[in-house]
Each structure stands twice: as C-alpha cells, then as structure tokens.
C-alpha cells in the first residue's frame, strides 16, 4: 500500500498533437496505451511511456467521450460524438492474436436484421472508415436526450428509463452489482437494472453536477460540480454528501478513482488536478479518511477552460489529464 510520504508526483510526459480542446482520455487495461479525443474531430492512440502517437483516426466531428473496454480479453474502444457512438478496434500492434480472435468473433456474430424502428440504427462500417479501424456505428436520428444501454453481442439498444428527470450529466455502471448510476444537475439516481427500479437518490449540495465516479468497492461515489465542489458520498451512511471538498477555485470538470491505490482526483478550470488520499475502512462504523496530498499543475488555461478530464493508470499511482490547451499529460 502506498503511503503519503511516497507520493512524489512530477510531470513525466506531455502528449502533443491535438488541435484545440482535448475533452476525454482513457487508458488501456494494460496501461501501455492511452486513448484521447478532442474537438479537432480526431481520436489518437498514444504509447504511454514514449509519448509517441501510434495512430490517428479522423472522425470529422468533436469527440465527447472515449472509453477503452475494461475487459483485457477484448480489444475494443468506444467513442461518442453528438450524434453517434463508434466502436473501433485498436491497431494490431497493440493486441495479441488471441484477443484479436475473440474481438472478431464478437463483432461478427450474426444478429437480427436492423429494421431501423428502434431508438438508434446499428451500421457496419465500410470503406475508408473500416480501414481506419472503425467497425460499428450506432447512429441517433436526432439530438440525444435519453439514456440508452447498448448490447454489442446482439446489436441491440434499449432505454431502461421511461423518461429522464433532468438533464443527464454523467452515467456509470456499478463495478460489482447490476446497478446503474445516472447524474443529473442536482442529484444522482441509482437504479437496479434487474428490477428496473430506483433504489437510491443522492442529493448533492451543488448547483450543477458536472461529473461522477464510483469507488472500485462500489460503496462510495464522488461527484464534481461547476460551483467548485467535489462531494463524497458514503452509500451506507446517507443520501447526502459525507464530505464536500472546496479546494478548487473554479469549476470542477472531472473526477476519478484509482482502481489500484486509495487515491482519487479532480480536474478543474483553474488549471489544476488535485490528488487526494481516500482511505476506506472495512469497519463500517469507521468513516472514510480523506486527505488532499498534491496539486498538479501544467495545463495552460485556454478560453477560460482548464483541465477537462482526469483518470488514473490501471496499475500504477500515475495520473493522466487532458486540457483545453490541446495537451494530454502524465504525472508520475
């Protein structure tokens, strides 16, 4: 277990290449590769240690979110724009043959014909898109305001909620249970997907929630807000924040937990990432211990925007961040 004295963080690598805002980043399960997406309409694959851009995919519209499939036995990434979700396979050099075979089997499974009557249309990529690694396109016929859950193996999409009670800001699957978390402007709703019912509603002391992250253990949630706050919820304790941290001077844009260390981080328009030590005890009578340990700086505030996304390396106590200045940074 890492101690606070051992947590000496410096800027180890700067990944340059994007033009404009870099809104979203995601590391591969192995931690060897990093995926980034920005307003320049490109998705880039980086080698983490060398900082080399291995591949650039031209999408043609601003990238809102990217995510690497957390299953190491599949080589698949997803990205979202304003109107569609794309499924890509990373460059072959990043993947071993067994994983490639399993991924191809998933993508080539026979499915029912797409009638186009559902909320979205599933389309197999062709031509130049296929050469770039784009395999499947999930297209929305109009602006997206609903929450949809997509099943890749069956090429099906469903809306598990009759209607959204507020503007959706962030969504997440529970790491252990069949729960789904949905953050709107003022609250976080936790749904049981098996029973398709609301199990809990968390109320944040915030004017407008911007982001959300779930602790790997599943019993704690953090959410950032545009009024400079980061709220920690203990799901076994209360539906109100256990603690609210006000360390940032401007809007909090993103929040993340480490899956290997008792660390969490927040990214803000003040140009900084704040890393905190969050100890969760097995004794349920003992409250979590939250200690800020490091302020990471380096991103240049651009057009009044600072750090737009933050995430941890899957196995090391390293932090990745992306900003409005067009850079992605690694702090080790």
From TrEMBL:
InterPro entries: BOP1/Erb1, WD40/YVTN_repeat-like_dom_sf, WD40_repeat_CS, WD40_repeat_dom_sf, WD40_rpt. WD repeats lie at residues 15-56, 300-332. Coiled coil: none annotated. Keywords: Repeat, WD repeat. It comes from Knipowitschia caucasica. SMART domains: WD40. It comes from the Eukaryota. One of its GO terms (molecular function) is ribonucleoprotein complex binding. This is Ribosome biogenesis protein BOP1-like protein. One of its GO terms (cellular component) is PeBoW complex.
């Amino acid at each position: 277990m890492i101690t606070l004295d051992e947590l000496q963080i410096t800027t180890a690598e700067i990944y340059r290449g994007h033009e404009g805002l870099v809104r979203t980043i995601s590391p591969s399960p192995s931690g060897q590769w990093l995926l980034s997406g920005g307003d320049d309409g490109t998705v880039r694959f980086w080698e983490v240690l060398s900082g080399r851009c291995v591949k650039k995919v031209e999408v043609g519209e601003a990238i809102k979110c990217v995510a690497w499939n957390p299953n190491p036995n599949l080589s698949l990434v997803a990205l979202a724009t304003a109107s569609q979700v794309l499924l890509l396979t990373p460059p072959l050099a990043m993947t071993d043959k067994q994983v490639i075979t399993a991924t191809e089997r998933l993508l080539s499974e026979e499915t029912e014909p797409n009638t186009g009557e559902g909320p979205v249309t599933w389309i197999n990529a062709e031509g130049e898109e296929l050469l770039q690694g784009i395999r499947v396109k999930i297209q929305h016929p109009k602006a997206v305001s609903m929450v949809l859950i997509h099943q890749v193996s069956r090429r099906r999409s469903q809306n598990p909620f009759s209607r959204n009670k507020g503007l959706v800001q962030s969504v997440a699957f529970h790491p252990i249970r069949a729960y789904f978390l949905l953050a709107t402007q003022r609250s976080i709703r936790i749904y049981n997907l098996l029973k398709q019912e609301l199990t809990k509603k968390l109320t944040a002391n915030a004017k407008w929630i911007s982001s959300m992250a779930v602790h790997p253990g599943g019993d704690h949630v953090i959410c950032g807000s545009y009024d400079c706050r980061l709220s920690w919820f203990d799901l076994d304790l209360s539906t109100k924040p256990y603690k609210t941290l006000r360390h940032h001077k401007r809007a909090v844009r993103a929040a993340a937990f480490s899956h290997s260390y008792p660390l969490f981080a927040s990214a803000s328009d003040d140009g900084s990432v704040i890393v905190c030590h969050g100890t969760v005890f097995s004794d349920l009578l003992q409250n979590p211990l939250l200690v800020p340990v490091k302020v990471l700086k380096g991103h240049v505030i651009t057009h009044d925007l600072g750090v737009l996304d933050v995430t941890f390396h899957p196995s090391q106590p390293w932090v990745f961040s992306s900003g409005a200045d067009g850079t992605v940074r690694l702090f080790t």
